[in-house]
Specification:
This protein is mainly alpha-helical and about 180 residues long. The protein has helices spanning about 15-25, 30-35, 45-50, 60-70, 75-90, 95-100, 110-120, 130-135, 140-165. α4 (about 60-70) packs antiparallel against α5, α5 crosses α6 and α7 packs antiparallel against α8. The radius of gyration is 16 Å and the shape is globular.
C-alpha cells in the first residue's frame, strides 16, 4: 500500500494554502484528513463547498448523521472528529455513543433520522418502507430525504478516504463501542 504523508502548507498549491489558512483561523488547525485532500489542487475546496452546502438540517442533526455513517463505515477518524463536534453542538458523550449504535432514544425525531441514515449507509440506499415512513412520520420531508442522501454521500467520501490513506487521527479518539 502507498504511504500517505500529511502535506504541510508549503507543500500544497497556492489555493490550498489559502484554504489551510482559513481552516487554521476557523478551527485552530488543519485536520489531517483535510490536509491529505490538498494533494489534489481541487478536491479540498470542492469537498468543503459540498460539506458546507445549505441544508434544512441543524448542525446537531448533521453531527448525528456524521456519527452514525462513520460508525457504519468503520471510520475511527470521523467517529473521533464528530464525537468532538457533536459534543460542541450539544450532545453528551453518551448520546454520541448511542447515535453511533444507530439510535437516539432521548429524541424521537432524531432517532428516526439516525435510523434512516444508518440504513441508507448499511444498505447502500436500499431502505425499508418502515424506516422511510418512520422518518417522514417524525416530521421530516421528502426534500430532507434528498438532503440526507447527500449528507451520507459526503461523509462516506471522507470515511473512504481515511480507509485508504490511514492518516493519523488528530482528535481525541472516540471510545470503542
Amino acid at each position: 500500500m502507498a504511504n500517505f504523508n500529511v502535506p504541510r502548507r508549503e507543500e500544497v498549491s497556492a489555493s490550498n494554502q489559502e484554504i489551510f489558512d482559513n481552516l487554521k483561523k476557523g478551527l485552530g488547525m488543519v485536520p489531517n484528513l483535510y490536509a491529505v485532500m490538498a494533494l489534489s489542487d481541487t478536491a479540498l475546496g470542492n469537498y468543503l463547498n459540498f460539506q458546507n452546502a445549505k441544508t434544512a438540517f441543524s448542525n446537531k442533526e448533521k453531527q448525528a448523521v456524521n456519527l452514525v455513517v462513520s460508525q457504519v463505515n468503520e471510520c475511527l477518524y470521523c467517529q473521533s472528529a464528530h464525537t468532538l463536534l457533536g459534543t460542541m453542538n450539544g450532545f453528551t458523550e453518551e448520546q454520541t455513543i448511542e447515535i453511533r449504535k444507530g439510535g437516539a432514544a432521548f429524541d424521537l425525531k432524531l432517532n428516526a433520522l439516525v435510523a434512516l441514515a444508518k440504513e441508507i449507509t448499511a444498505k447502500r440506499g436500499f431502505i425499508s418502507e418502515t424506516t422511510l415512513n418512520g422518518f417522514l412520520n417524525a416530521g421530516y420531508t421528502k426534500g430532507q430525504l434528498v438532503e440526507l442522501v447527500m449528507l451520507v454521500a459526503e461523509k462516506s467520501a471522507m470515511n473512504y478516504l481515511h480507509a485508504i490513506t490511514k492518516v493519523d487521527i488528530d482528535f481525541p479518539v472516540a471510545k470503542a463501542i
